[in-house]
Amino acid sequence: MMTTQGGLQPTSNEANMCTNDNGSQLGTRIVDEIMAGKNVFFDLPDKLTGEIWTLKFHCIGAQPGKEIVTVNIDKAYVAFYNVVYIKSKLGYSGRDFLFYKKRCGIDRSRLLALDYIHQEEAMLSDNMDERKISFVLTKDPPSDLEVSITPIKRPRQRTNVDEETIEVSIDAYKEWLAILQHDNPETDLMDDFREDTIKTYKEWLRHQGDLPDILLYERMKNKPEDVDIVEWHYMVLYFGSEKFQKISSRNSENRQKQRTKHIMGYRTFSQISFQQRDPETGIEPTDLSLWMITHCKNDEWSEEASRGIYENAAEKIAEKIYQTEKFYLTREEENAIFQTTFKETTGCKANRLHGHGYLSRYPTRSQVMESKFLEQARATVATNQKNIELESQVQLLNEKLACEVAERERILQEKMQALQEEEEKKDKCLEKK
User: Fold this and answer.
1) In angstroms, rounded to a whole number, what is the distance separating the alpha carbons of residues 46 and 76?
2) Which of 17-31, 94-108, 175-189, 228-242 has the weakest average pLDDT?
3) Which of 221, 186, 180 minimizes the C-alpha distance to 203?
4) CA neighbor of 81 nearest in space, from 159, 192, 175, 7
5) CA-only gyration radius of the chain, Å
6) DSSP 359
7) What are the residue boundaries of the structural domains of the chain, listed by start?
8) N or C: which end of the chain has fewer CB within 10 A?
9) Cα-based angle 120, 121, 123 (whole degrees, multiple of 5)
């Protein structure tokens, strides 16, 4: 046996032995070698446990007839270094991949890498009930770490022949319905048409206590592809719990009490407000503007209550502007008037921020200060930008004016020179005469 940096490697003679043996003979021979102490990395146990474990190795890429090698051995010999020894005997190096299967459902298992000795305890614990460990040996990394396995065989429950068995008739729900209609003639449960039969049968299942199990099974079949089966099972149980049903009923009642409805669908108010911000200053719309954006489209309001809130708030804001000397209101003042008008119009007593979605809250003092600081900073930047643009425009005007003055002086000089030349010509003509 040779030891390399990558792990135990079989010699040429050992490799030939692996080739000549089939899976069953090879497994028996490897057990004999381990129990004879040929694995120098494993100390022989003082005594055996009496528990026989089955180690099943799936050798991917092996020759036909040698894809599966089974080893039956005492639990005392089920150790990390012995598994690595078997791996080397099967023709795999330390650089190749070694996994063991951990059951994660009735017929599914997950491949867990076995690379270090400290993983030995978890490997034994995961397979303690079955006393069987399935390994996967491969030279290439697997594409899927979750594979199908043989379903767990549950032991049949023996029934006491002396016990009285109860057989439920297929028409038991009809008998139950006949008694119900006799006792309560005004019941709406019937068995005339398909929809009536489904409704009646479901009510009978609920009466029998079997409906929750059936609904659970139906919901499990609708598992989304990106959700783990265990997570979905927990979610289905939670959705059917009494706690969740109470919350769901309360939310349904609250939705029925809503006086106004927005038109934004699944998008949040904060998202809409951010999208409608000023591209230059980054300032988002006021509460009044946001209310119109989220409740009115193409001059059509979602309902009259939303229109009434907007018109009342806009009227009060306009009155407040005329009452001030500067004919101007800050964002905070406009938003405060909108919030007050909303409560007065709807009669709402909830002390929360309205018109921003159900998760909105009044900003804290630090958030208000930070918002004011950012707004002032944005205003300063915008002012500086405008000043730079004005300075650039003034400079261009000055340059243009200078060019015009120079052009006028040039034209004047040309005219004066032309006049002077004309005078000189006249003088020469007079001298000749």
Assistant:
1) 9
2) 17-31
3) 180
4) 7
5) 44
6) T
7) 2-148, 172-256, 269-339
8) C
9) 65
Nearest Cα neighbor of 207 from 183, 188, 180 is 180
Chain mean position to CA 28 = 50
Q: Locate tokens 């005469």: which residue?
A: 433
- In this prediction, residues 267-288 reach a mean pLDDT of 82
Residue pLDDT, tens place only, 105-158: 666 788 888 888 888 888 888 888 888 899 998 988 887 777 766 555 444 444
Q: How many CB atoms lie within 10 A of CB 133?
A: 21
Query: Residues 6 or more apart from 47 whose CB is under 8 A from it?
Result: 76
Q: Locate 34 and state its tokens.
A: 């381990």
Rounded Cα distance, 218 and 236, in Å: 10
Amino acid at site 175: E
Sheet holding 68-74, edge to edge: 68-74, 52-59, 132-138, 97-103, 108-113, 146-148
DSSP codes of every residue in 212-254: HHHHHHHHHHT--TTS-HHHHHHHHHHHTSHHHHHHHHHHHHH
